[in-house]
Amino acid sequence: MSDFFALPFRDRRDAGRRLAAALAEYRQRDCLVLALPRGGVPVADEVARALAAPLDLLLVRKIGAPGHPEFAVGAVVDGGAPIVVRNKEGMRALDVDEGAFQAVCAHELKEIERRRRLYLRGSRPLDPKGHVVIVIDDGIATGATVRAALQAVRKRDPEKLILAVPVAPREALTELRGEADEIVCLAMPRPFGAVGYFYDDFRQVSDAEVIAIMARYRTDLAREGAEQ
User: Fold this and answer.
1) Looking at residue 102, what is its pLDDT?
2) CA 96 to CA 53: how far, in whole Å?
3) At 116, which helix (H) or strand (E)?
4) Is residue 225 over pLDDT 70?
5) Which residues make Cβ contacts (< 8 Å) with residue 32, sequence separation at least 6?
6) Coil vs helix vs strand at 168
7) d(Cα 10, Cα 126) in Å, to the nearest integer?
């Protein structure tokens, strides 16, 4: 990891290729790459292809406080059995009781299910247990969503948990250090600003692009299953 970063990434695929090079030691390992959609998917696609690893989505939804949806009191993460992460201090500060929390959580779970149907045609998540799991996004701002994602993956017993991102503020990575076994970050510029500042092309990733990428991996998995 470095404080110095002379040039921005051209786009997410350029960032993914550079990240793949930094993760080359895992080429011969039993890896599973998990992308945070939508922005993390093209980045993760490059990494998964370079490592010859399967790719899946890690669907995370913030649980906002009733009346204050911008304030996260928790998060829910997709999986065989969805995992809920609570911000208990935030719940106490905004007087959010368990019933209200569960109501918002149920709503966000429905949105996760909708996105899994849209992006993956409803296929079940791949199981991280026993794999080297690499969680990828296109960058980190505050780290709240990534923290929930890492905590959820940890509960599914991976062999090793790695967070890999092209760019992030040093402070956010310091706070996330206890959530992953290893953090790979190509640049930690100061001042930081926003993730998009470090990409020449940071246009929004479309649903269609995510669907196309994930369809290719599902086809590969189906072919491998038929050959076994």
Assistant:
1) 92
2) 41
3) helix 98-120
4) no
5) 53, 54, 56, 126, 128, 131, 132, 133, 134, 158
6) coil
7) 31
